[in-house]
């Protein structure tokens, strides 16, 4: 459920993402989820990895600005309406979603989604109470 996300601040210029992914590959760090939010001048690369502390350290040692944030990773049925059900659960209980993205590969008939919510503890409790408690295989 709760997992650690690495956020990397990077300037929006040609080759910067390639540099980061090559660095992580050279250190044998496998990406489980990845998303980028960008503007004209900079981007925020968000990653889910198996070893977040080591990943953060590798990035910091290479001169990147990186930090850890707790997020919720939710396994749900891979069927139409499954995401809408979780969204409705959060909405009915006033849990604000700041952003979300999917994990690269679900397992079998499951789809894994990452949520950054305003009240992490409350969101986690609601998910567990409603049967969203399958551990993720990162």
Highlighted features:
138 residues; alpha+beta; VC0802-like; Alpha-Beta Plaits; 2 domains; 6-stranded antiparallel beta sheet; 4 helices; 6 strands; 38% strand; elongated
Question: In words, what does this structure look like?
Answer:
This protein has 138 residues and is of the alpha+beta class. The chain folds into two domains: 2-68, VC0802-like (2-Layer Sandwich), CATH 3.30.2130; 71-129, Alpha-Beta Plaits (2-Layer Sandwich). It is 30% helix and 38% strand. The protein is built from four helices and six strands; from the N terminus they run E-H-E-E-H-E-H-E-E-H. The protein has helices at 16-26, 52-61, 82-92, 120-129, and strands at residues 2-11, 31-38, 42-49, 65-77, 97-102, 110-117. Strand 5 and strand 6 (110-117) form a beta hairpin. The longest helix is centred in the first third of the chain and has 11 residues, at 16-26. The termini are close together. The mean pLDDT is 89.
Task: Describe the secondary-structure layout.
Layout lengths: L1 E10 L4 H11 L4 E8 L3 E8 L2 H10 L3 E13 L4 H11 L4 E6 L7 E8 L2 H10 L9
Antiparallel strand pairs: 1-3, 1-4, 2-3, 4-6, 5-6
């Amino acid at each position: 459920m709760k997992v650690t996300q690495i956020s990397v601040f990077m300037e929006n210029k040609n080759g910067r993402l390639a540099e980061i992914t090559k660095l992580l590959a050279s250190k044998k760090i496998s990406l489980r989820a990845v998303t980028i939010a960008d503007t004209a001048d900079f981007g925020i690369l968000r990653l889910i990895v198996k070893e977040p502390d080591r990943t953060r350290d590798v990035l910091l040692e290479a001169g990147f600005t990186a930090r850890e944030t707790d997020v919720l990773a939710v396994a749900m049925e891979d069927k139409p309406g499954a995401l809408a059900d979780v969204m409705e659960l959060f909405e009915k209980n006033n849990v604000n979603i700041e952003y979300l993205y999917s994990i690269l590969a679900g397992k079998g008939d499951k789809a894994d989604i990452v949520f950054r919510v305003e009240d992490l503890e409350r969101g986690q409790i609601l998910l567990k109470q409603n049967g969203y408690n399958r551990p993720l295989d990162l």
